[in-house]
């Protein structure tokens, strides 16, 4: 016989949030709509259970402040670069697709790295392979080797920032500093993509 356990805060939230969404979808904010949303959310959770997440890592608030500041700086810089490209009278773009092997083995770090890269204008993750830990990036206006190397280093620096905030210490130490990327980028064969 299964023992009854007291519901956790996470279970309460996963039942409560669908009830609020249900009320917003119907546009009625009364007790009956809330209760029907609660029942609907509970049935959904039973019929389509989500797998248990194993969150491995930590949160470092002081590195999070640096992370937010650097991300805002990247957003402003990239937005200005895109604006300059758009205002040119004759637009000639030479885009590239580059392959980025990640150093971290944590899914959380990989996911946040992909989100961070996609957030900044000018780069988009076209493909992310969790098994090989490789990202394929489409980089705007990266026709020469120097700009491709810059995009490569920026992507790995984003991984390092995310690892500093969320990854366990041993995982964070696997990701080299951007100065160490010089050795990695000298032998990359970009090809003609």
From TrEMBL:
Example GO molecular function: monoatomic cation transmembrane transporter activity
Membrane-protein topology: Multi-pass membrane protein
Gene Ontology CC, one term: plasma membrane
TM helices/strands, residue ranges: 7-25, 31-50, 62-80
Keyword annotations of the record: Cell membrane, Membrane, Transmembrane, Transmembrane helix
Keyword Transmembrane: yes
Subcellular location: Cell membrane
KW Secreted (keyword) present: no
InterPro entries: Cation_antiport_E
Family designation: Belongs to the CPA3 antiporters (TC 2.A.63) subunit E family.
Official protein name in the record: Na+/H+ antiporter subunit E
């Amino acid at each position: 016989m299964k023992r009854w356990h007291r519901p956790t805060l996470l279970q309460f939230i996963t039942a409560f949030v669908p009830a609020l969404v249900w009320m917003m979808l119907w546009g009625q904010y009364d007790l009956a709509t809330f209760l029907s949303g609660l029942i609907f959310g509970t049935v959904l959770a039973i019929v389509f259970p989500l797998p248990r997440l194993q969150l491995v890592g930590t949160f470092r608030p002081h590195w999070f402040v640096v992370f937010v500041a650097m991300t805002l700086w990247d957003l402003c810089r990239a937005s200005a670069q895109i604006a300059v490209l758009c205002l040119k009278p004759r637009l000639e773009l030479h885009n590239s697709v580059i392959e980025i092997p990640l150093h971290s083995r944590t899914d959380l770090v990989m996911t946040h790295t992909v989100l961070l890269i996609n957030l900044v204008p000018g780069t988009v993750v076209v493909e992310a392979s969790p098994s090989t830990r490789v990202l394929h990036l489409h980089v705007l206006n990266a026709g020469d080797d120097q700009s491709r190397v810059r995009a490569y280093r920026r992507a790995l620096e984003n991984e390092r920032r995310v690892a500093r905030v969320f990854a366990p210490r041993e995982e964070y130490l696997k990701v080299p500093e951007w100065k160490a990327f010089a050795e990695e980028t000298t032998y990359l064969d970009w090809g003609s993509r």
